[in-house]
Design goal:
- It is a single chain.
- The protein is of the alpha/beta class.
- The chain contains 13 helices and eight strands.
- Strand 2, helix 5 and strand 3 form a beta-alpha-beta unit.
- It is globular, with a radius of gyration of 18 Å.
Length: 330
């Protein structure tokens, strides 16, 4: 798989290798606007006839566009739309309650927590959280745990969290996740913290639920992909700020002149691998970080210890419960 990964596999090609793993499955994906990684993932697997695809997004029009495309690819697949703004915990709770009430969806086999925002100006949500942290992490943490009764009703559940090599921008700021001093705020550090959080969440889920429930959780890095996620950016300006942050932290990327961008179909390949490869246990430990359809290697990949630590994962779990005002005991 590693050699194949270096040749930049695509989600659509990889999905054809897992027809039995996909057929009949119920799969929930967040962030499914056309042109994005979530849409590339569901479009790739739809021809393999999953039973139900749940499309969770905050834009009903774009969700419908993706749903229409899926129904062309697989008319027998049931496509359910779920309107949810992941930056709002109240909205997440309403969405989760709705899904729990769907009698025709007794279980969820795979959850792909893909939705997110990148490098937006400092914004505090109505509930008091820094927007990257709320949208990219807190919303996914809450949604996944509230849906856990249906996830654990699957015979072999998996949760895939979209991380990023951008986690190297920041560990968890345990005493100040919201950047209370605006002068200290850097967009890429805020983004990096949220991606570190997604990686640590996968570790916690694996450790708390894995052995007893035949449950797998992974975090994935899709690579540098140009999608609608970055449509708001002035890339010339964003590149300058990103490079400045890299240099501040002492990373060689700060002096790079360009990046090797992938298509959404290429970027979503690791989603397919993490979510559906039947032999992944032979390659990656539960809770692992995956990229290029392989296990991340801290000796040759951008992979920091703060995003792979079980101790930091448990510290974050406890902090998150405090922030949400709700405990999740497994």
């Amino acid at each position: 798989m590693a050699d194949q990964a270096e040749q930049k596999p695509t989600a659509s090609t990889l999905a054809t290798k897992y027809p039995e793993a996909i057929k009949g499955k119920t799969i929930l994906v967040t962030g499914v606007a056309p042109g994005g990684l979530g849409a590339a993932f569901v479009t790739a697997i739809a021809p393999m006839q999953p039973a139900v695809l749940i499309l969770a997004d905050c834009n009903p029009t774009k969700t419908q566009q993706t749903a229409d495309e899926l129904l062309k690819l697989s008319p027998d697949t049931k496509v359910r739309r779920l309107n949810v703004d992941l930056s709002s915990l109240a909205a997440v709770r309403r969405a989760a309650e709705m899904v729990i009430g769907w009698a025709d969806v007794p279980h969820i086999d795979v959850v792909v927590n893909n939705a997110g925002i990148t490098a937006v100006p400092r914004t505090i949500t109505d509930e008091g959280f820094e927007r990257h942290f709320a949208t990219n992490y807190l919303g996914h943490f809450l949604l996944t745990n509230l849906l856990m009764p249906k996830i654990l009703s699957s015979d072999a559940p998996r949760v895939v969290n979209v991380g990023s090599d951008g986690h190297i921008f920041s560990p968890i700021r345990f005493d100040d996740p919201g950047f209370r001093d605006e002068a200290l705020y850097r967009t890429w550090m805020a983004y990096g913290q949220s991606k570190t959080a997604m990686m640590l969440m996968a570790i916690s889920l694996a450790e708390k639920l894995g052995a007893r429930n035949n449950f797998l959780a992974f975090s994935v890095h899709p690579g540098a992909v140009t999608t609608n996620l970055t449509a708001h950016l002035d890339w010339e300006e964003a590149y300058v700020e990103m490079s400045s942050t890299y240099r501040l932290l002492g990373y060689a990327q700060g002096w790079k002149k360009d990046f090797d961008f992938l298509t959404p179909d290429q970027g979503a390949a690791t989603y397919v691998y993490a979510a559906l490869d039947p032999d992944i246990r032979n390659v990656a430990h539960n809770g692992a970080y995956l990229l290029k359809c392989r296990l991340g290697d801290p000796w040759k990949d951008d992979l920091r210890a703060w995003a792979t630590s079980s101790v930091e994962a448990e510290m974050l779990w406890k902090l998150t419960e405090e922030l949400l005002g709700q405990e999740f005991k497994y």
